[in-house]
Amino acid sequence: MNCHTLVMSVEGCFLLITHYFIKRQSMGKINAIISGVGGYVPDYILTNEELSRMVDTSDEWIMTRVGIKERHILAEEGLGTSYMARKAAKQALKKTGADPDSIDAVLVATTTPDYKFPSTASVVIGKLGLKNAFAMDLSAACAGFMYAMDMAASMIKCGRCRRIIVIGADKMSSIADYTDRQTCVLFGDGAGAVIMEASEEEGVGAQDAFFRTDGKGLPFLHMKAGGSVCPPSHFTVSHRLHYIYQEGRTVFRYAVTSMGDDVLEVLKRNGLTNDDVDWVIPHEANYRIIEAVAKRVGLPMERIVVNIERYGNTSGATIPLAMWDHESQLKKGQNVIFTAFGAGFAHGASYYKWAYDGDKVAK
Ligand code: UT7
User: Fold this and answer.
1) Where in the chain do CATH 3.40.47.10 domains reside?
2) Considering only CA atoms, which residue is closest to atom 45 of ligand 1?
């Protein structure tokens, strides 16, 4: 064997070993996929006409400024966010056929928990009778569900969990002031849930996320009382401090720039162009915000999933409810971008390769 042949065979061995390790790594790689979606909205529909009998507003103002026609309200006394969360989760379990005993965790993204403690997720676990799961709530306002999906994806990818129910649920009617026309027309109640699970299939599932919370949002969007800074008292109740406070115009501006730039960042990081994007599923606070984000990103509205007209802003539930409504049009391998913006200001965008043909799911 001459010197040249020796070098060639050493190089060959090296290439073979490298190839073996790369293959082993990719074979063992766990992806986190969304395997099914459930949703629930309460029966009672609060229309713009009814609202215009309660405050000084009109269907025309609400439709042209916000794009909402009606919203669902959980009107029955004694029912809270966990009631809707449980219904959505139960439907997701049924649709996927997942064994409830195989659920490792339940995450609930909500701004309107049943109680300050325990977590709404723990109430959901109790009601669903899950035996092998832990529960926690995630508080990031309207960005909560998108963040929770990424937390679940990370726990699955690192091998800690194999199957997680992620829920976005809010009873916004419990914190909306129905004497304040500037806020009460915007919100609705609802819940959406996804089952996220481990998959060894390549090229599907959670790909990337770019999240930021800039901490500048407090003055513009908050609830003044009820927390540890200003606990509930006769004063806070009589001064109506337990409701949503919002400076709409400022929030609007931040929402458009943040969501638009976050989507562009995720596209850039993943080498995607606008043409590669099949769907954007944004948080829905205002149709005009969504239109402005689409324009900033350079995408036609046909590729943006929107249902705000029927549900209003359901905070943590807007994204999963949009997935639920739109499921039949989501196809395996499609590039789906989520983006959200909420109090804090918490915002970001995430990128998923859809993992199943939505039109083949039994309703
Ligand atoms: O999901 C969490 C994040 N939240 C958001 O992203 C919401 C962001 N903000 C918005 O979507 C919009 O700012 C709103 C929908 C909240 C408000 O729309 P706007 O076009 O920014 O209206 P505005 O606050 O500038 O108010 C314009 C006018 C005012 O009257 P004057 O001062 O011009 O006479 C308001 O008093 O519209 C009046 N107005 C209403 N009129 C009829 C405000 N609310 C109403 C109403 N009906 N419901």
Assistant:
1) 31-199, 205-360
2) 182
Catalytic (active site) residue 313: yes
Q: Which CATH architecture has domain 205-360?
A: 3-Layer(aba) Sandwich (3.40)
Query: For residue 19, what pLDDT is reported?
Result: 54
Residue of 31, 72, 142, 161 marked catalytic: 142
The catalytically annotated residue of 31, 48, 313, 335 is: 313
Is residue 7 pLDDT above 60, yes or no? no
Let me know how long the chain is.
Answer: 363
Amino acid sitting at position 17: I
Q: Are the C-beta atoms of residues 61 and 103 closer than 8 Å to each other?
A: no
Q: Could you tell me if residue 54 is left (phi over 0), alpha (psi between -120 and 50 degrees) or otherwise beta?
A: alpha
Q: Which atom belonging to ligand 1 lies closest to the Cα atom of 183?
A: 16
- DSSP-assigned letters across all residues of 174-189: GT--TT-HHHHTTB-E
- Let me know if 132 is a catalytic residue: no
pTM to 2 decimal places? 0.93
Which CATH number applies to 31-199? 3.40.47.10
142 lines ligand 1 (CB under 6 A): yes
